[in-house]
Amino acid sequence: MLRLPPYPPFVPHTPGQPTVRWPHVPYPPVGTTAYPNVCILFDTLPIGARVVVGLGSSEWVGNYGGVIDGVLFLTNAQLFSNVGNPIDGIQSVVRIPVINLQFISY
After folding, report:
1. What is the pLDDT of residues 57-101, one digit of tens each?
2. CATH second-level architecture of 1-106?
3. ω into 36 cis (within 30 of 0)
4. Do the bridges between strand 91-97 and strand 103-105 make them parallel or antiparallel, or are there none, so unpaired?
5. Pairing of strands 58-68, 71-81
6. Which domain of life is it from (predicted)?
7. Structure pTM?
8. What is the spatial distance between Cα 68 and Cα 72, in angstroms, rounded to a whole number?
9. Is the pLDDT of residue 37 over 70?
10. What is the DSSP letter of 49?
11. How far, in Å, CA of 34 to CA of 96, rounded?
12. pLDDT digits 0-9 by tens, 2-18
């Protein structure tokens, strides 16, 4: 299970106290990834691999489609409640901001 660091991301390799990249905006600028180190963890995951993505009170089960600009893409995904009951039918494409992820299992 993958646990994500708290937002906002910190600049790596900074001497002394880490500095916040975007202290005045809730989301990073377009074209930059919210969690560059987390996106690297997805590099070894093959496209189409079956994953379970946990959010606050639910989880998505679907096929990994990639990470672009801090957004995780799942294909053929279905939303489940925490107790395992399906909430909705199968969605062809689901976009989940990386900032909202609680855990990932594959």
Report:
1. 899 999 999 888 788 899 999 999 988 899 989 999 999 988 888
2. Roll (2.30)
3. no
4. unpaired
5. antiparallel
6. Bacteria
7. 0.62
8. 7
9. no
10. -
11. 12
12. 565 555 554 454 455 44
